[in-house]
Design a protein that fits this description.
Layout (H helix, E strand, L loop, with lengths): L15 H12 L2 H13 L3 H29 L3 H8 L5 H19 L3 H17 L3 H32 L8 H13 L1 H20 L2 H28 L5 H8 L8 H14 L6 H6 L8 H29 L9 H12 L4 H34 L4 H21 L8 H11 L6 H39 L10 H5 L17 H24 L6
Bound molecules: phenylalanine.
Length: about 525
């Protein structure tokens, strides 16, 4: 245990608020501020927001509850949690392992040696660890995702410093793009700021759950919402700003394609930090008397609020100064400095915006590092301080590869040829390789297995028993009585009603969430097309 652990036990949040703020800190990240606004703009504004809300409620919320329950029940990191609950031997796992073995042999026969060996190793791992694999995948995902997330975190520091020093006042989009491109291809700057970002993250995690994560979440999350509010007020009071609100939120159902639904689903997953063990880990610090239903609703609510506020902070300013907001990754780092350059006191507002982005990235990075640190503390019996230094150090080192290879392989050509030799496919940079591995593969697969495990292997019965701790009658409330505001009326809550919140949750976890995640995954992997 770390130095701040109460005697004899795992450290816990000081209460519901501490947990909600920390988990919302994990959830609210670059995804909310950078990605949500532009995918909304691209996919039919308000119409897309409706689909996104449905995905959040129908898939995100049930899976988030799974993760919190797994964490709180076992009081362990993701690997420990699955180890504690997984059956000693599982037919499904063995079948899966045999399937991987056969595919591995087939791949080797077709000369795809790299993939063949990966399949064989995976088959062996599944055979040995069975249902602990989703836990291992989550910790691995946390490791991989943080290594490149912190590179982007480093850019937020670069942009913040540059806006303070006034070097972000661009006259045209070519200048803004040139600044961003120079930054991306400069290995030294990228690495230095990536390391700086990681050092700050490590310092917070080093201080423990309450004194580090919770204390800083209590300061940073209100700051984030205050900054968002200030930016919205600034933007919306500029002449012509309402066109931006119109672009962002006016429902345009003609822009909705089947793919929009999958985009919404994938984003719902990423934005709630599901599938990489962050919520399992944070859930393991929740004490038995907290209401998990209410906590997860608050986390999901705050995350969605932040995403919508971010859109309202960005588009109105862009429209007011008549810059067509580029709908793509360049939005935040290229278009916004240009936008702010045309607003009175622009460099001040620009600095405020990048401070917001930095806070959002930092609180998410904290949760990713905590996954790996809590794994090392529980499973390898390291102290928090040692674990933070070793895990933080190795993630920083791995991240340096992403930092020197953001948009091409120029600086690490040897690694590129090695990866091409092994996998026979090529990504445009190491950064993209990591992003693809973490966000497109590990995250949905781990999420899928988490839902399947809770729904079918461990079982919803035990999960609901865990949910009942601290939730008064919440799990057993009749769904319609709840909607009608009659949940405390005894006549509306008798046991003959089977459609309770818990039963509804069980149905989603067993059937709907796994099916939806699987379809989205197969689509991202390119195995099915719309
Ligand atoms: N939820 C974060 C975001 O929206 C991303 C994240 C992913 C954070 C994984 C932690 C873990 O940006």
């Amino acid at each position: 245990m770390g130095n701040n652990a109460p005697s004899g036990g795992r450290e816990h949040w000081s209460g519901q608020l501490g947990f909600v703020l920390a988990a919302a800190g994990s959830a609210i990240g670059l995804g909310n501020i950078w990605k949500f606004p532009y995918i909304t703009g691209e996919n039919g504004g308000g119409a897309f927001v409706l689909i996104y809300l449905a995905c959040i409620l129908l898939i995100g919320l049930p899976v988030m509850l799974c993760e919190i329950i797994l964490g709180r029940h076992t009081q362990k990191n993701p690997v420990g949690a699955f180890k504690a609950l997984a059956p000693k031997s599982s037919l499904t796992a063995h079948l899966f392992s045999i399937m991987m073995l056969i595919s591995g042999i087939a791949l080797i026969c077709f000369d795809a040696y790299g993939w063949g060996i990966i399949f064989l190793l995976t088959s062996f791992m599944i055979f040995k660890y069975g249902w602990v694999i989703p836990g291992i995948m989550s910790v691995f995902a946390g490791f991989i995702i943080l290594s490149y997330y912190s590179v982007v975190g480093g850019w937020t520091i670069t942009y913040f410093c540059s806006s303070i020093s006034g070097s972000l006042s661009f006259q045209n989009s070519a200048e803004a793009a040139a600044f961003f491109d120079t930054l991306k291809v400069n290995p030294l700057t990228c690495s230095v700021f990536h390391i700086a970002f990681m050092v700050i993250t490590c310092l917070i995690i080093y201080s423990g759950v309450r004194k580090g994560i919770e204390r800083w979440s209590r300061i940073l999350m209100p700051a984030l919402f205050i900054i968002l509010m200030a930016l919205i007020l600034r933007g919306i009071t500029l002449p012509g700003a309402l066109d931006g609100v119109d672009f962002f939120l006016r429902p345009d159902f003609s822009k909705i394609k089947p793919q929009s639904v999958l985009t919404a689903l994938g984003h719902a997953f990423f934005t709630l930090s599901l599938g990489m063990g962050a919520i399992i880990t944070y859930g393991s610090y929740v004490s038995k008397n907290e209401n998990l239903f209410k906590a997860s609703l608050s986390i999901v609510g705050l995350d969605t609020l932040a995403a919508i506020m971010a859109g309202l902070a960005i588009f109105p300013v862009a429209y007011a100064v008549k810059i067509n907001p580029e709908c793509g990754p360049g939005l935040v780092f290229q278009t916004l400095p240009l936008v702010f350059a045309k607003v009175p006191l622009g460099s001040f507002w620009c600095a405020v915006f990048f401070l917001l982005l930095f806070i959002a990235a930092l609180t998410s990075a904290m949760s990713l590092l905590e996954v790996v640190v809590s794994f090392s503390m529980d499973e390898l019996k390291w102290t928090r301080h040692f674990a933070t230094i070793v895990c933080g150090g190795s993630i920083t080192l791995l991240g340096c590869f992403s930092a020197v290879s953001v948009s091409n392989w120029k600086n690490i050509e040897w690694l590129h040829s090695m990866l091409v030799d092994i996998f026979n496919t090529s990504q445009s940079s190491f950064f993209d390789f990591m992003d693809n591995l973490g966000a497109n593969w590990l995250l949905p697969l781990a999420g899928l297995f988490i839902a399947l495990f809770t729904g079918w292997i461990w079982g919803t019965k035990k999960a609901v028993d865990e949910m009942r701790n601290g939730s008064q009658n919440f799990a057993d409330v009749n769904f319609f009585s709840f909607l009608a505001g009659l949940k405390d009326d005894p006549g509306h809550n008798s046991r003959v009603h089977v459609l309770t919140l818990a039963s509804l949750w069980g149905i989603f976890v067993r059937f709907i969430a796994p099916a939806a995640i699987l379809i989205a995954f197969l689509h991202t992997a390119g195995w099915i097309k719309y």
